[in-house]
Structure formats: C-alpha cells, structure tokens
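Journal club side-thread
Mid-discussion, someone asked how the predicted structure for our own chain would compare to the paper's figures. Pasting it here so we can look after the session.
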Amino acid sequence: QVQLVESGGGLVQAGGSLRLSCAAPGITFSFDAMGWYRQAPGIQRELVGTISRGGSTDYADSVKGRFTISRDNANNTVYLQMNSLEPEDTAVYYCNARIGRTITYWGRGTQVTVSS
C-alpha cells in the first residue's frame, strides 16, 4: 500500500516562504515522477510542478521563478520550496507520485494560506 504523506503547510504573509515535503514511507522502489498539484475553493485541481527520477522539472507558468521542486530518490521524498508567495497561491497542495503512465498516487493534501 503506497501512502504519500505531506507536511509543511501553514499560514504565511504575502512575500513569505514555505517548504512542503512529501514522503512515501516504507516504499523501496523509486517513482518515475513526483510532483505537486493544488486546488483552491471552487477551482479545478491544477498542476504546480513535477520532477522526473532524473531530476527534470516542469512548472506551471504561474509559479515559475518562485517555486522549486526537488527530490531525494533514496528516500522517496519530494519537496516544494515556495518563495515570494502571493494570496493567489492559497490552496490545498497535493503530492503526486507516478509509476509509468497510468499508476498514480495522491497524498491527502496540506493547506497553504497566504495572507495579504
């Protein structure tokens, strides 16, 4: 049973920073890709960014230059460093991990709230 456990969410003022972590405890294999999505109230879940096993990254235009994804393959952990946060970044952030093209796992989400 694969479980993704997110941590690091919270309340921060605009312009501040947060770092999210997502771990997959007990998993001995490496995911092909890991990443982060977010969902604000009344809005569809959207991609924030992804990182491949080899370290290639892809970001949504709205977060480029402000957010950085990294991963620790040995520990099956993915991180999201969020800088220059804006109130529009307020959402529940979900960790995602993928094996191949069809097997996908989701975390339960962690709330990020950015006050103006």
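Post-session note: The mean pLDDT is 95.
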